[in-house]
Amino acid sequence: MPTTSHSADTHSASPLRYALDDHGIARIRFNRPQALNAIDIPMADAFLRCCRALAQEARVRVIHLSGTGRAFMAGGDVQAMRTAPEAVAAALIRHMHDALRILADQNAPIVCTVQGAVAGAGLGVMLNADFVLAQQDTRFGVAYPLIGASCDCSTSWLLPRMVGLRKATELALLGDMIDANEALRLGLVNQVLDDAALAPATEQLLLRLAQGPTVAYGRMRHLLRTALQHDLDAHLDSEATGFITCTTTQDFREGVDAFLEKRPPQFQGA
Prior knowledge:
This protein is α/β, with parallel strands linked by helices and 270 residues long. It is 47% helix and 16% strand. The chain has 2 domains: 4-210, 2-enoyl-CoA Hydratase, Chain A, domain 1 (Alpha-Beta Complex); 214-260, Lyase 2-enoyl-coa Hydratase, Chain  A, domain 2 (Orthogonal Bundle). Strands 1-2-3-4-5-7-10 form a 7-stranded mixed β-sheet, sandwiched between helices. Strands 6-8-9 form a 3-stranded mixed β-sheet. Helix 5 (155-163) crosses helix 6 (165-174). The radius of gyration is 19 Å and the shape is globular. The relative contact order is 0.11.
């Protein structure tokens, strides 16, 4: 395991654990295992503070999202919303949405490792990742109809882009759970792995991305996520701007030199 060079909220009782290691891997672990990592206000607040902190940290090369215990995240904490549903829901959504906006703006790619239940807001958080590795026993569901609610955490924006409008409507309105193999078939996850293989595969991917051209990754993330919002003419302009921006980086110069010298590039993320 890499040496941790910076950490916050790492106490075992904290609702979220965060650490930045020497490879530039920012690790965010949701940590309410007794509640299947359901989001309450302290967790949502910790998530937002964590995202704000990593956004100010130039050393971040890749972001890893995971959950402690039997589940990645079983959605929002329904018990917490029972007594004051409007106020609690508003606070949860405000914190979570602000955090997801920050993550969407990062150059660093996002890897998510999931197991057990991925439901409601947990599905939305997962969909925000660029890569998802799932344990074989994972089950996925939109879940909001089960409590008489509509989507949050960008689920309704990302889901139809990934699986198409017809299937997204089915998943959202019926709220049925699907297994990991079906999630793989639909393109919701990148890999399905058994318990023993999940952690090594995650670390291999994190290290590979941490050694990549971080600014170029950021421009690529932006282009892919905005492609359906632009006509071709506007998107060609965005591609041109992105490529030219990349040519001003040290990593571009290193990439060109390495290509011409027929050697692997040594990117620094800048």
